[in-house]
Each structure stands twice: as structure tokens, then as C-alpha cells.
Design brief:
Helix content: 25-40%
Region (Disordered): 202-223
Largest sheet: 10 strands, mixed
Number of helices: 23
Low-confidence stretches: 1-10, 14-38, 215-219
Distance between the termini: 33 Å
Family: Belongs to the peptidase S45 family.
Signal peptide: 1-26
Mean pLDDT: 93
Protein name: Penicillin acylase family protein
Structural class: alpha+beta
Number of strands: 35
Biased composition (Low complexity): 202-220
Strand content: 15-25%
Shape: globular
């Protein structure tokens, strides 16, 4: 049986190789193949290995998209279908208008807001207009083929298979999709940190009528500059996504090749999950890694020569323009004294068990009118003033082409070349390493072209506070000379060109944990970039400090291998604990009678906590005792004590990794935070020395799996962020944290040395054998050995071959 299977695979491989044996330089013939699919339609061969990882073999890009769409549907059909309901603006029709929206593709709070926005995007033909643009502004022929193929593969799977996932089995909303749906998903992902964050206010903004200010009541107040800056900082600093990544130069490694460790932090459920695969077109493309669901290309991954990952950046991907309105018409604004009417976007949404809802949105040359940053911080639309949002990623469909360029890269320079050509990365940094020993960090992303000079010259009174404080520009939209302008190397107006991007090449290490570009390498700080990219010389987060400490020590040690990357991922060290736990334990032991007063004024016996903290091993391993106590204590302390009072040694830009330090144990908030933490744990029935894994967990197939890792606020590299439910007696199941892990290097062979792990496993379907298999590995801090080369794929004891096709 095994030999017959091997012959089948070899035969399929030979067939595809013969069909595509031309070298990569023979690209024109590949283009002809894209235009003339076979008479039987699209097809691919999918070889499944351990943990349900598909290795997709295809003759061209459309076929590759077909195999990818098929395989993604097999694992995630309900999650994908739910996302397509969102993109069609039909959530209210199927699930009700007031139900909480799918948070994967926008920040909308309700289905109605989500539908009004996404139907508006669809009815304005935004996606079609971008698709019609020639590359590189629009997608290339190869990516168009992949999107078309993905839709066909998804549809073919639906036609051939019965859905077993109880989340959508038999649901009428699971329907075929088109290339337009796939492209719309890509556009939503690109703009999720811009327009996507403002869906609620875009869809509710109304002009004032008569003497009434739009959003009368609290929203009619004049915007408070400090409140707006704080809200904006919190808005774009929210922990909905995050990541760590590090690349090492060849002279720090055992064999002179580079090394890369990628550790993105994403939701464990829903449409922002990664999905793992290998994509191969013989002679043209061979790449392995993780894709964001519904996208046809590998988002983070590796090939024979290069490995790359992304981290969410500090760049602010949108800005505001204050509009001066015509006194006679609040839907007309003035630019250089000339009136321009706002564009009405009237949208009707079908509602389950109710009448359709029709609402109007208002759009300007800059973008949609918005009336708030959040429910507490208004940007009022008055008879004289309104605010418009500009998001350059709202027309950015270049992410897949940029990623495809990475997938075909042979060096870190090729990674930079793809970034320069396509300019499609919306809200992340890129970290890469290659076989030749090069390292790369770059914050090459699509940002509004806000230079410090422009902000100085054109900021409104409000913007003069928000821009230096948080990087949020609020410009005078009434002046034509305040337009964002163009860089000569940018693919279009209003964004920065590649030459402006903060970049560091060939440092011994480059590391990012969602901090600014400045401290990518502590010995080679990056400076000179515009404020909109991030700050220089400001206090680092604990995860950034801990990451730099760890990787700098690794680089100094040298002789690094992939195994060292694996150890770093699961070290689970707690930098906040190293800095403060000993001092807290000593301060605790010095409390008279072992008692502290809680915030309710009641005394609490905290004496047991003193010993637990003293004995704690300063890790977030599942067996660590004291980890949960410190995990609940530290955020409470940070909330209780002003930042300037928490440490005795303040932050110094001359020692950004080492400062601030030395906990100020004299602050009264410390004892109170300790008392409240002890009270909280005892009320939940949790022992103060309970092992972390007993309370940080997921349940899969009825089995409670302990989960290692901890909060980024504690500085833990392996981020795991559960939600505390006081009424439920502790943490709920882990919903967010480390996701698609990859530790990649090279040796003397043609095959990369790679270890991967998809923490939440390949499928959301509880009926799938790959619903929990990698989650069990993550619980035990184990990895998957990547099968990249043909010999490794064919030798898999779990090898399963599926030939998928579209019949016309």
C-alpha cells in the first residue's frame, strides 16, 4: 500500500513538473498558462502530512489558488463563510441587526453597523475600481489568477462535500463566492486598522439640522485635545493583534546562515486565524507558512532561501482632516474658498424579522465623515466644522503581491525589492533572514504621507496636541497646500515611498515586539523618521525590553541554531517578575502582622502571598506556582500607581533597555493591590500557589489543556492573554496569543531547517482530527518538524494524497 501511494505521488509530481519545468526566468509562458486553463477547469494535487498540513502542488497560479481555496474550505468553511456574510453586508439578514458583529474584519459593534459599511463598500464598487488598476497599483495577473482560483476551489469544495462543522452545517448563508468576494476580504484586512476601526461612526454620522449640532448632547462639546490624543493612542495601541520576531545575522549562528523566529499574536477564534500550507508550482514557486484565512498567498513563511515574519507596527495608518463647512449647507465644505459637496452613500440593509434599514453615509475627497474616536471622545459635526478620515489602505489590494514577492525571494534584498515594488504592507513591520546570513528589519508599510513639516504647517489646534503626543495628524482640510503630496518612489499620491521607511540591514540581530523602529537593535538605534511612524527616545514596553535582553544575549553567545530559537519561544520568562517580584515579596514580608488593607478598606491577611512570590521561578510555565498570583497583581499595581511613581530609577534614553528599574515599594498602592489580588483569588477558590496551567487553559474534545505563556504587559515573549471572569471563578479559555510560530534556519542541504506550530490547530471544526492536535503540542511546548522538500513530504507516515478539480 505504501509503495502504491508513493508511486501515485511521484506520478502526480512528475506530471506537474513536466507541465511546468521551465525555469523561473521563463515567466512569459507562465502568463500564457494563466490565460488558458485546461478544458476540465482548474485542478491541483494536495498532499497532506502530519497535523493536516496541506502541500499544494499546481501547474500555475490559478490552479494554486484553486487548491488553496479547496483546502482552506475543508478546514475552515464556517469561519470563511461567516466572513463572506460580513463582506456582503448580510449579517443583519441572517443573524439580526443588534447582535454583536464579527470582529475579524472590522471594529463594528453591531451587525447593522457592519452591514451598512460593507454594503456601502460593495455598492460603491470600490473593489472593482482597484481591480481595474494596472499593477502594481492593482493586483498582478498572478494574484488575480490566485484569487479567481481560490474562489473556484472554495466553491468546488462546497459543491462536493457536506459540511460537518456544527457552526454552519445546513446554514443557508454558506454560499458560493466570487473573485470579488476574495478581493473584498483582502481590502478589509488591509483597512482593518484604519476605516475598519471607525465603522460605527462612519455609519452613524449625520449633518446638523437647523440649530442642532450632529450628535447633540455630549458629542456637541468642543473636542478636548488631551482626551483626543489619549483616545487615539489607546485606539491604535489596543492589543487586538501583536507579535514578536527576531532575525540573526550569520556571524551569530553556528553555520553562517541566518535565523528567524516568528511569533505573531492573534485571536485563536474567528476570521483572523492563520492557516498553514505549502504552495508549489514546480520551477516557479515553493513556499511554506501561514496565510490569513481567505487570502490566497502565504502571509508569513519561508522558502529554500529566505524566511520572514511580521509584527504589528507603531505607525498610524490613518489621519483626520478638519473641514470648514459652508454656513448655508453643512454637507458642503470649502477648499481654498471653493465649495465641494459631500458625496452621499445611501445604503439599505435587510434585517431578520424586521423592516429593511436605510442610512446615509457622507464622504469627502479625504474619506468618510466621522464624529468620534470612541463613545467618550467626540469630533462633533457642527454647522461650521466636520472631520473626515483618510485611510490609504482603503484602496490597497497590494498585500498579496507583496507576499508573493517574499515567497519567491532568494535574499533579504529581494524582500526589500518586493516591498519597494508593490508597497502593499498595511499595518506591520517585516523581519527577515536568509541562507546567506543577512538580517533585515523594515517598517515598510502604507502610511498617510504625514511629514513632521506638514504637521507643523497644517495641523489644526487639536492636531498640534495629538500629533506629537500620539502620531495622530489632524490637518486643515480647507487648504489645498495641506494636501499630503507625493513621493517620487511611491506607487501613488498620499503615501510614503520606500526611501522614507525605517530600515536596518545586516545587524547581528533585529528584534521587534510591537515597539518603535528606534530600538530594533540596542547598539544600532534607528532615528530620523517622521513621527507618524513612531517615537524615538521614549520608554519601551516590558516585552520589548525583555526581548532585546534575550536576543542580544543570544547574539553575544553566538553559535546559534534553530534549537536556540525554540528555547527562546518557550522560555516564558517574566521581565516584570525579574524586575519587581523580589522587592514585592520583601515589602510583603515587612507588612505589620502580614496584613494589608484592600481598596474596600478591609484588612487582608497576605502573609501567604509573601512566600509564594519569593519562591516563584519568574516564569509562566504551566507548572509555575506563583505565576498566577503575580499575573493578577501586576496589572492592578500599574493601574493603581502613576507611572512616574512606580520606579525609583526613572526611564533614561541613554539606557532604554535597563530603565526604569527598582520598584518603589513605598507607594501605598502596592499593599492595596496585593490585598485585592489575594482577595480576588480566594473569592474564586484559587490557591495562591496554584500552578498556572490549572487555570490558564483551553478545552478541546472534552480535555482541559494547560496553556503556557503570559501577558505582554508582564513582558512575556510567548504572549497568552486569557480573560478574567470573576463570577465564573477565574480565567475563561484562552482566546488570544501566540499563533503561527516558526523557527527557521538553513544547513548545507537544499531544505530549510524549520520547526513550526499552529497553536490553535489547523481546523475550527470540532469534528476534524486536526481540531486540537497542534494545541496539544503547544500545551507540552513541542514543535512540528516541517516537511518542505519532496523527500520529506513523501516519507511522511501520515501522507494522504487528494487530487481536486473543477469540472465544467
Amino acid at each position: 500500500m505504501r509503495s502504491r501511494l508513493r508511486r501515485l505521488v511521484l506520478g502526480a509530481t512528475a506530471l506537474f513538473t513536466a507541465a511546468t519545468a521551465l525555469p523561473a526566468a521563463a515567466a512569459p509562458s507562465q502568463g500564457r498558462a494563466e490565460q488558458h486553463p485546461s478544458r476540465d477547469g482548474l485542478s491541483a494535487v494536495i498532499r497532506y502530512t502530519e497535523y493536516g498540513i496541506p502541500h499544494i502542488l499546481a501547474k500555475n497560479y490559478a490552479d494554486l489558488g484553486f487548491g488553496t481555496g479547496w483546502a482552506q474550505a475543508a478546514d475552515e468553511v464556517c469561519t470563511l463563510a461567516d466572513g463572506f456574510v460580513t463582506l456582503r453586508g448580510e449579517r443583519s439578514r441572517y443573524f439580526g441587526a443588534d447582535t454583536a458583529a464579527d470582529g475579524a474584519l472590522s471594529g463594528a459593534r453591531t451587525n447593522l453597523a457592519s452591514d451598512l459599511y460593507f454594503r456601502g463598500v460593495r455598492e460603491s464598487r470600490t473593489v472593482e475600481k482597484v481591480l481595474a488598476e494596472p499593477a502594481p497599483v492593482g493586483p498582478s495577473r498572478e494574484v488575480r489568477g490566485m484569487m479567481r482560483g481560490w474562489a473556484a476551489g472554495y466553491n468546488a469544495w462546497l459543491k462536493k462535500n457536506k459540511t460537518t462543522d456544527p457552526a454552519c452545517a445546513g446554514a443557508s448563508w454558506v454560499r458560493p463566492v466570487t473573485e470579488l468576494d476574495v478581493a473584498a476580504r483582502g481590502l478589509a484586512i488591509a483597512s482593518i486598522s484604519g476605516e475598519g476601526r471607525f465603522v460605527d461612526t462612519i455609519t452613524t454620522a449625520k449633518p446638523p439640522t437647523g440649530t442642532t449640532t450632529a450628535g447633540s448632547g455630549p458629542s456637541a462639546r468642543k473636542p478636548d485635545a488631551k482626551a483626543v490624543a489619549k483616545a487615539a493612542d489607546e485606539l491604535w495601541g489596543a492589543p487586538g493583534m501583536g507579535s514578536n520576531a527576531v532575525a540573526f545575522r550569520g556571524d551569530t549562528t553556528a553555520n553562517g546562515s541566518g535565523l528567524l523566529l516568528g511569533n505573531p499574536h492573534y485571536p485563536w477564534e474567528g476570521g483572523r486565524r492563520f492557516w498553514q500550507s505549502q504552495q508549489t508550482i514546480p520551477g516557479e514557486l515553493n513556499v511554506s507558512g501561514g496565510s490569513l484565512l481567505g487570502t490566497p498567498a502565504i502571509s508569513i513563511g519561508f522558502n529554500t532561501h529566505v524566511a520572514w515574519s511580521h509584527t504589528v507596527s507603531t505607525g498610524i495608518p490613518a489621519n483626520f482632516h478638519r473641514l470648514n463647512l459652508d454656513p448655508a449647507d453643512p454637507t458642503t465644505y470649502l477648499v481654498d474658498g471653493k465649495p465641494e459637496r459631500m458625496r452621499k452613500r445611501t445604503v439599505t440593509v435587510a434585517v431578520k424579522d424586521g423592516a429593511p434599514v436605510t442610512r446615509t453615509q457622507w464622504w469627502t475627497r479625504y474619506g468618510p465623515v466621522v464624529t468620534s474616536l470612541n463613545s467618550q471622545v467626540p469630533l462633533p459635526w457642527t454647522s461650521t466644522t466636520a472631520y473626515a478620515l483618510y485611510d490609504p489602505n482603503a484602496s490597497n489590494l497590494r498585500f498579496s503581491d507583496t507576499s508573493l514577492g517574499f515567497s519567491k525571494a532568494k535574499s533579504t534584498d529581494d524582500v526589500l525589492a518586493s516591498l519597494a515594488r508593490h508597497q502593499g504592507i498595511p499595518w506591520v513591520n517585516t523581519i527577515a533572514a536568509d541562507r546567506a546570513g543577512h538580517s533585515l528589519y523594515t517598517q515598510s508599510q502604507v502610511l498617510p504621507r504625514i511629514t513632521d513639516g506638514l504637521a507643523e504647517r497644517c495641523s489644526t489646534e487639536l492636531g498640534r496636541t495629538t500629533y506629537p503626543a500620539s502620531g495622530i495628524a489632524i490637518l486643515d482640510g480647507s487648504r489645498g497646500d495641506c494636501a499630503l503630496g507625493s513621493d517620487p518612489d511611491a506607487v501613488g499620491p498620499g503615501i510614503f515611498g520606500p526611501a522614507r521607511m525605517p530600515t536596518l540591514k545586516d545587524a547581528p540581530y533585529v528584534e521587534n515586539s510591537n515597539g518603535t523602529a528606534w530600538m530594533t537593535n540596542a547598539d544600532r538605534p534607528i532615528t530620523g523618521y517622521e513621527r507618524v511612524f513612531g517615537t524615538v527616545g521614549t520608554q519601551l514596553g516590558l516585552r520589548t525590553r525583555g526581548g532585546i535582553e534575550d536576543v542580544a544575549a543570544m547574539a553575544d553567545k553566538g553559535r546559534l541554531t534553530v534549537r536556540d530559537l525554540q528555547r527562546q519561544q518557550f522560555a516564558n520568562r517574566v521581565p516584570a517578575g525579574d524586575l519587581a517580584a523580589g522587592d514585592v515579596a520583601r515589602a510583603c514580608a515587612a507588612l505589620p502582622g502580614g496584613s494589608a488593607t484592600g481598596s474596600d478598606g478591609k484588612p487582608v491577611d497576605v502573609s501567604e502571598a509573601c512566600g509564594v512570590l519569593k519562591a516563584w521561578d519568574r516564569t509562566m510555565d504551566t507548572g509555575s506556582r506563583g505565576a498566577l498570583l503575580f499575573d493578577r497583581f501586576w496589572p492592578r499595581l500599574e493601574r493603581a500607581v502613576p507611572p512616574g511613581q512606580l520606579w525609583k530609577v526613572p526611564f533614561s534614553a541613554a539606557d532604554p533597555v535597563g530603565t526604569p528599574n527598582t520598584l518603589n515599594t513605598d507607594v501605598p498602592g502596592l499593599a492595596t493591590a496585593l490585598a485585592d489580588t489575594v482577595t480576588e483569588l480566594r473569592a474564586a477558590g484559587i490557591a495562591l500557589d496554584a500552578p498556572l496551567g490549572a487555570h490558564q487553559f483551553v478545552v478541546r474534545d472534552g480535555e482541559r489543556l494547560p496553556v503556557p505563556g503570559g501577558a505582554g504587559q508582564l513582558g512575556v515573549w510567548n504572549v497568552i492573554q486569557p480573560t478574567w471572569d470573576a463570577a465564573g471563578g477565574g480565567y475563561t479559555e484562552v482566546p488570544f496569543g501566540s499563533s503561527h510560530l516558526q523557527a527557521v534556519g538553513w544547513d548545507g542541504s537544499r531544505c530549510p531547517v524549520a520547526r513550526t506550530l499552529l497553536t490553535y490547530s489547523q481546523s475550527s471544526n470540532p469534528e476534524s482530527p486536526h481540531f486540537a492536535d497542534q494545541t496539544r503540542l503547544f500545551s507540552g511546548e513541542k514543535w512540528v518538524t516541517s516537511r518542505f522538500c519532496e523527500k520529506d513530504i513523501l516519507s511522511s507516515p501520515k501522507l494522504k494524497v487528494v487530487r481536486v478539480h473543477e469540472r465544467h
